[in-house]
Amino acid sequence: MGGRVTILDPSQHSPEVRDFEGSLLERLVGQDRAVRRLARVYQVHLAGLSRPGRPLVNLLFLGPTGSGKTRLVEAAAEVLFGDMSAVVKIDCAEFQHSHEIAKLIGSPPGYLGHRETQPLLTQEKLDEHHTDKLKLSLVLFDEIEKASDALWQLLLGILDKATLTLGDNRRVDFSRAMIFLTSNLGSEEMARLMTGQLGFSPRPDTGEENLDTRIYKTGFRAAKKKFSREFMNRLDKVIVFRALTRAHLEQILDIELRRVQERIVSSLTGGNQFVFECTQPARDFLLREGTDAESGARHLARAIDRHLVFPLSNLVATRQIQLGDLVTVDCEPTASKLVFLRQEKGALVAGQQNDVGGATALVMASDRSANTSRSLARRARS
Ligand SMILES: Nc1ncnc2c1ncn2[C@@H]1O[C@H](COP(=O)(O)OP(=O)(O)OP(=O)(O)O)[C@@H](O)[C@H]1O
Ligand SMILES: [Mg+2]
After folding, report:
1. Containing structural domain, residue 69
2. Residue of 1, 257, 288, 375 with fewest CB within 10 Å of its CB?
3. Mean pLDDT on 163-186
4. Residues 204 and 347 grouped into a single domain
5. Per the domain annotation, does 258 fall within a domain?
6. Half-sphere exposure in the Cβ direction for 235 (13 Å, CA)
């Protein structure tokens, strides 16, 4: 006697995991493989099927500098906990000497300073962001190739048995933690591979497969040479991040500009929210200033701060920009800075001029046609 037999679909993710994956893809450009892997691990955790006595996952991220390795972990924290700093982050370069390990695990009782040192890796720290629904921790060891031998020993224990013993013999349980390890191993050679064939302006998108494969091999070879087999065996996966193309960097610029706009809408109080939009020459300028073949998108946020956020802050503070204005950001092709044009009340929704409730009354730049801003810029130039 048995019930009806149906064929199941094991490829389906639950809505939470689909949301998680979708939100990560909105934040991280061009690294879909890494995002998909994370979504799978999250699904296993939510289903309660993670292996006991091991971290939820041990992932090693390799790849060019400024390609999103650290950003992925921050984005996961943002999506899961609404706070991109909800990550226990250990900069291995800071613990190169064995005596500095005390900062991580505290010193044994009786040692000088035993009570003063509040170790970084306690259970409380690990569980700090747990909620009733989500008991999961994100732990990031950055630049592991710089870790001291003592730190390696701790790391091996965490990766293998999901436990760490503190100086005072308390145990820390990592079985509900995703462990991310990043390394710059091979990144110099990767940079050479990338610049070798492009110079910057961005590499032609042809031959991309080939470059990615070569970058992958470079990373993997460097890791196998440097790290012990014992360590490599404890990893669930080595993920080599892709070199970003010009098209990726343009998308990242969009994301970063949107984040600035969100800040303008959410943090400017006193009713001086406004909308800005960048013309194509202004976008090209920011891309030129903030990205290059060797450092990917690493300097993009800084370039946006310097050339856009600082000037906008001055304009707001001196009341040259006011509530509901539309600010067009433009650039002459040969210029070394951006210019700002104000259209008074240009960002207000028609018919709501007298009733500005903040963000909802503003038309976001992305909703406008690019033509409007271009013609405004042309008008101001002539
Ligand atoms: N793939 C990406 N998608 C979206 N933003 C990115 C991406 N890569 C880099 N960025 C942007 O560039 C910044 C620097 O990237 P990130 O810190 O992740 O580099 P990294 O790969 O960890 O480099 P490093 O090896 O030097 O530590 C991020 O904060 C983010 O703003
Ligand atoms: Mg990093």
Report:
1. 15-243
2. 1
3. 94
4. no
5. yes
6. 19
